[in-house]
Write a structure and sequence with these properties.
Blueprint (H helix, E strand, L loop, with lengths): L5 E8 L5 E5 L5 E3 L2 E4 L4 E7 L8 E7 L7 H5 L7 E8 L6 E15 L2 E8 L35 E5 L2 E3 L3 E4 L14 E4 L8 E9 L5 E5 L12 E5 L6 H6 L16 H5 L9
Parallel strand pairs: 2-4
Antiparallel strand pairs: 1-2, 1-7, 3-4, 5-6, 6-9, 7-8, 8-9, 10-16, 11-12, 12-15, 13-14, 13-16, 14-15
Organism: Paracoccus amoyensis
InterPro entries: Phage_phiJL001_Gp84 (IPR011928), Phage_phiJL001_Gp84_C (IPR018964)
Protein name: DUF2163 domain-containing protein
């Protein structure tokens, strides 16, 4: 490969399938079914690649663009964990290329009309914990393969229109279905339409209001602010206790915790005998 004809090319694919290609060459390149555009400034910095299982890391930077990586999409988290590949390619013959990086985008930030994205190598998942944790509370996530709960019914979900909104994280509803108090705490609020469609957040508080209304507070505001009239879906929450699994969800057979483990007091002072049952 002739050094004077080397260019770099990046391919970014979001979880929703949107794929973009960029290059630092001055004309567009095409290969693997992707067109790599030169018209959006993008550069890679400080690529570090280690041998063995060490995690590759780098940083990508580029200009924000409404039709490419927009500030709105970054705020909405739509580029989080997007797949990313980087090549060195001979622009005179794109068949002569070498894959130099494969991984995903980590934290994405923006400032002064530019985005910056942390790049995570393929070995990054090896940092995650593996195996089960022995703990009195459940290790499954509500509705996943371990939990096996089906949440699509009206007993655990409801859809409503936003009637009041404060600080981008407090949602108010004047009329609310007959769910028990605090039913949705630790659950999920998902925006179904409007500019913030698809965004979701964890529910911190579910507060009953006079007259049958309800106030739902998220732990933090969403990347984009929803509007009154937008529809949302609320999904019930679980505190991962065995009693909740049994009484609220009737799902104790699939409980993934160890509710009868001795307490920390017993482990520290087993000699106290009958006080620890």
């Amino acid at each position: 490969m002739t050094t004077t004809t080397i260019a770099r090319a990046w391919m970014i694919r979001r979880k929703d399938g949107l794929t973009l290609g960029f290059t630092d060459h001055d004309v567009a390149l095409s290969f693997d079914g992707v067109r790599f555009r030169p018209d959006h400034g993008m550069a890679a910095r400080a690529l570090v690649q280690g041998s063995g299982l060490s995690v590759d890391n780098s940083e990508a930077a580029g200009a924000l663009s409404d039709d490419a990586i927009s500030e709105r999409d970054i705020l909405a988290g739509r580029w989080d964990a997007a797949e990313l590949k980087m090549w060195e390619v001979d622009w005179s013959d794109v068949g002569r290329r070498r894959l130099t990086f494969a991984g995903s985008m980590g934290e994405v930030s923006r400032s002064n009309g530019e985005f910056k994205a942390e790049l995570r190598g393929l070995a990054e998942p090896l940092n995650n914990a593996r195996g089960r944790v022995f703990h009195p509370r459940c290790s499954a996530r509500l509705g996943d393969a371990g939990c096996k709960m089906v949440l699509s019914g009206t007993a655990f979900q409801t859809e409503l229109e936003i009637e009041g909104l404060d600080d981008g994280r407090i949602f108010r509803f004047s009329e609310f279905p007959a769910f028990n108090a605090r039913w949705f705490e630790r659950g999920v609020l998902r925006i179904l339409d409007g500019e913030a469609a698809g965004l979701h957040g964890a529910i911190k508080n579910d507060i009953s209001l006079p007259g049958g209304g309800r106030e739902i507070e998220l732990w933090q505001s969403l990347g984009l602010t929803a509007q009154t009239g937008d529809r949302v879906r609320l999904t019930a929450g679980c505190d991962k206790r065995a009693a909740t699994c049994s009484q609220k969800f009737s799902n104790l057979l699939n409980f993934r915790g160890f509710p009868h483990l001795p307490s920390e007091d017993w482990l520290l002072a087993p000699q106290v005998g009958s006080r620890n049952d």
